[in-house]
Amino acid sequence: MSATLDDLDRRLLWALQDDLPLRERPFAVLAARLGVNEDEVLQRLRRYLAEGIVTRFGPFFQVERMGGAFCLAAMAVPEERFEEVAATVGAFPQVAHNYRREHALNMWFVLAATRPEGIAEVAWAIEDAVSLRVWLFPKEREYFVRLRLRP
Fold it and tell me: DSSP readout, 86-129?
């Protein structure tokens, strides 16, 4: 799908990447900067999400600094069970998202926990629920790459 973006779309998408003000009504402030009203900004953001122009809009937290943990996980799921296992894994509130890969480990997902020990606990619970091994790939090192995409 190729979206048609006008000048306001481009300026708004650029601003949303890291220029959203921390205010009670941030979209109103952003709208004023762009010379439009708050409703226009919100309608366009909703359209971006609905049309897949933007797939996620929200903050990124450094959960480790708050005492929690994230971990990449994977499983080798038989094809005939993939949908069933995906539904079971996705139902765990600690699963941020899961997706299919063309690999022996064909289901990958991110686990989030409020404390580091929670990662292993939820992995064991998933193993019990689906009778398949969960492979954990903890972060060894963190890199910060500032990437801004010009619309």
Answer: HHHHHTSTTEEEEEE-SSSS-EEEEEEESSTHHHHHHHHHHHHH
Can you tell me which residue has the tokens 């063309």? 102
**Tens-place pLDDT, residues 93-142:** 999 888 999 999 999 999 999 999 999 999 999 999 999 999 999 988 87
pLDDT at 44 over 60: yes
Whole-model pTM: value is: 0.64
Which residue's structure tokens are 């779309």? 9
Separation CA 29–CA 108 (nearest Å) = 39
For the chain, strand residue ranges (E) read: 69-75, 95-100, 107-113, 135-137
- What percent of the chain is helix, strand and coil (3-state, nearest 5)? 45, 15, 40
Task: Report phi then psi at 69, rounded to 5.
Answer: -155, 150
